[in-house]
Amino acid sequence: MKRSSTLLGLAFVLLLVSISFAFIPSIAEGAVPKLINFQGILKDGSGNPVTNGSYSVIFTIYDAAVGGSVQWAETTSVTTSTGLFTVLLGALNPVPDSAFNDSSRYLGVKVGADPEMGPRQKLVSVPFATGNWSTTGNGGTETSRNFLGTIDNQPLEVKVNGLRALRIEPTTSDTSPNLIAGHNFNSASAGVAGATINGGGFLNNNNRVTDNFGTIGGGANNSAGDFIGTIDDAAFATVGGGIGNRARGPRSTVPGGGGNFADGAYSFAAGRKAKANHAGTFVWADTGDAIFGTDFASTAPNQFLIRASGGVGIGTSSPGARLSLGISTANTILALYDEPGNQHGLGIQPGVFRLHMGNASDRFAFLSSAAGTELVTIQGIGRVGIGTASPEEGLHIGGTATQSRILLSNGGDLMWESTTGANTPVLTLHSDDNVYLDAQAAATSDLIFRTNTTFTERMRITDAGNVGIGTSAPSGRLQVNGALATVVNAVSANTTLTDAHSVVLVDAIGGPRTITLPTAVGINGRQYVIKKSDATANAVTIDANGAENIDGAFTYVLSSLNKYVVIVSNGTSWWIIGNN
């Protein structure tokens, strides 16, 4: 029977569209067979659909409309229904990639013993989806014509589960495209170039870049850029991640954390609720309170601010104060000197706190009041002045008549005067409701304290002002040849300290103990050393006595064996000057 074959125009269009979808999964899912969905209708010589049944059909892909070379061929059986049939080309003989390595491809159809129908059908662009990228790698590619992406000014998106996971937005050829990954609401403002969002974000907490070359590493509810002005006035702002962070200053940085703002140009904010509000500021904040935290903000440009309630340690992992310096392997732990030449300054070395002056005429001064009144002076040649900025001796006490005196309470006058010796030294104690000790001599003489019938020397004050205990030749302002001692009290019950206590060892084996301090008023300078001497878990609580406090707190607790604290009164409250 003479037959004819007609390709349905609409069906073929749908066919070509389906071809591209048939091959896209091969990119994402691996070795999927390369098939071309083909639909047609068979009619007899009278133009009527052929009888329902199976027919042998040969499909051939050529490289020319007439003649040419065969690129692929397949003989298959099609089953008709009122002449219509559908077949997957390549099911019996897979279509090779080489069949579509050129745009000139034509499909020929031959039914049974009939000659091949003409004209051949040109394969348009959609079937070339068979030339997809292989998941096992491609060879012989050229970047000028083999690439994944677009050739027009439209963005490219990659989706998972129907939702956008990556968006690449085009820009002009002289700048960078925008790379936006993560939540499908993550965005870069219109006109922005070079924006990067590496991921993160969730509903109502998306990440946003509003200025050129802004970067967000991830996290959620983060922003890079200032949302106002031009798209270039806060360029190169960076947020590494975290949540609720923003970098609004140009070239500002927030590495992560939460609630941190780097609003100044070239500013840096990190931790929790650090606010670098000014240009050039570095702000690092600890957690603040456990629930909401508290802002820690810059107050002026070019500041370096740290809030660390646990202390800052340099060379130590256990800071005991706001700033703790650990033991240095070098000779100097801390040095603060002026420039140039390091002529003046102070330093801390193992066992030594040093004040350095470069010249004999220089001095170190202690000042008070808003006027900067100089109270104590140490000259570069070693002279000390109290009440005078120009000491004339090793120790020079100046000021008013009463300020320059050392007063002792006594009801009468005492005077000792040597009647022998060339220097005729005089020691006088006199009083006008006070006691005066005057040591006078025509030349150099020492003040010597002796005891017992053998007149054993116990202490000496030299004419140069040096004090020696147990030595007649002190080499410094104070030299003691012997041990120093203070009272040590061992207590095992609740105790209120008095002036009879100094070092207190507390035994809490029988239960928690409370050591109550006396009122700090009127005992400025009194010092106590309190130590827990047992290994029980019972705490030793030090009570500051009423409304007074210890370093701002009403109590201080020693919780374990050998914990101690050194406390001193300043006349109104108690202060910690040492602990472990």
Describe the structure.
- With about 575 residues, this protein is mostly beta strands.
- The longest helix is centred in the N-terminal third of the chain and has 15 residues, at about 10-25.
- The model is unreliable at about 1-30 (pLDDT under 50).
- It has a seven-stranded mixed sheet, with no helix packed on it. A seven-stranded parallel sheet has the order 11-13-15-17-19-21-23, with no helix packed on it. It has a five-stranded mixed sheet with strand order 41-43-45-48-49, with no helix packed on it.
- The protein folds into five domains: about 5-130, Sandwich (Immunoglobulin-like), CATH 2.60.40; about 150-310; about 355-405, no CATH class; about 415-480, no CATH class; about 490-580, Jelly Rolls, CATH 2.60.120.1230.
- The radius of gyration is 47 Å and the shape is elongated.
- It has two helices and 49 strands.
- The relative contact order is 0.03.
- The protein starts with a strand and ends with a strand.
Give a quick summary of the entry:
The chain is mainly β.
